[in-house]
Amino acid sequence: MSSINESTPLERLDITQDEQKKTFKKIAFRLLPFLFLAYAINAIDRINISFAKLRMSEDLLLSDAAYGIGAAAFFVGYLLFEIPSNLYMQKVGTRATLTRIMVLWGIVTMLMSTVESAMGFYVLRFLLGVAEAGFFPGVILYLTYWFPGSLRGRITSVFFMAGIMAGIVSGPLAGWIMSNFHGWFGLKDWQALFVLEGIPAVILGFFAWFWLVDHPEKAKWLTVREKLVVQYSLSSENQAIEKKSIPLKQLLCDPRILIAGFVFFCIYSGTNTVAYWMPTLIKEFGIHDIRQIGLISSLPYITALVAMYILGRSSDKRLERRWHLALTMLVGAISFTLLGLFQNEIVLSISLLTLGAAACLAAVPLFWTIPPAYLSSTAAAAGIALISTLGGMAAVLSPILVGTIKTQTGSIYMAFSVIALLLVIGAVTLLLGIPARLLRDTKS
């Protein structure tokens, strides 16, 4: 074979499918373990507040309403700086951006141990959101530099699974830290939790600077031929994509996007409530040992892993999305509603919480099979981003809603019943507002 260099015309490379497969497998083994670990630590640092609350609320005299506001403050900072962070990443590169994000969020997480008042709690939660802003969408954008669309779905799903794995380990880990490190360097248990769980993000952030590469052409661990394989695969894909922009005003007036955004809002209200209020609910069952609470809180995530696989496979096999998603949402709603009726039955309460929380978590990947098949090709890219933003508002509103209801009524079961109602409304809206005939990849 004649010599290959980076100036060789791509159409003359005669690249085989086996060559592409080996190249992208090599890239996946290089990048995915790091990104998986980074996202898992990100998820742990984001929701560790739900376990710290069990102790810090007593020390700071923090009401449930105040906790809800603090939980929401994170997402205010996150949403405000998400787009600027992504734009800045395109200027300075992924390596610098992810290093900055991880180091800053680790530092702010550790600073959470210094909170002495509700206002301090709000400020640091907001700053944590600012620090983390852009991490998830930044990684998703980064993956487009390395993998073609034909592989991106599988690669992204592996990355997404890190959040579920974090849910499985975060509870037992928090329980272990808070049970064994109370008094460590004079820190209380919840303070030690923030310090110890903030350190890995800082370390991993510095490691990112040496491990990550902004673009394939700069990767010293790829051969010249492998770089050309990546370039060929991505250029072929980009040439096939017709890029069109749609005005924001037009998107906001599109009922398809508004309906899908509302459905995602209802789902996200459920998953966010699970993330930030599950330990509190378990404590209401009469379980006060922090280690037991941590272990029990991992059950919904384990169940969700199984449910995601079964539901995803069933949905693909039958080419049916709507009823799979709607019924999953209704299972979550029924489980949350029944919690209040069986609050004195610990085993049954844990079972209902596990089922309801797993249903909410499993609904997320099911939902994201619908927008790409529901929107036109010209509206898909911007429309999906807007749907995500609209649904993401639940992250701001649901913690405040649950905290306010808990403070005003003294019952967290009432708050979960309200979330259950939202899930029902979302399921009905899905079935009525998104007819099967409008989905390109389903049987109508």
Task: Describe the overall structure.
- The chain has helices at residues 17-47, 49-60, 64-92, 94-111, 118-132, 135-144, 149-180, 189-211, 224-240, 248-252, 255-284, 290-318, 322-339, 346-367, 371-374, 377-409, 412-433.
- Helix 1 (17-47) packs antiparallel against helix 8 and helix 11 (255-284) runs antiparallel to helix 17 (412-433).
- It is mostly helical.
- The protein has 17 helices and no strands.
Q: Describe the sheet with the most strands.
A: none
Instruction: Summarize the helix and strand pattern as letters.
Output: HHHHHHHHHHHHHHHHH
Briefly note the structural class of the backbone.
mainly alpha
Radius of gyration computed on alpha carbons: 23 Å
> What is the overall silhouette?
globular
* Number of H- or I-type helical stretches: 17
Low-confidence stretches: 240-245
- Mean pLDDT, all residues: 87
Distance between the termini: 52 Å
Strand content: under 5%
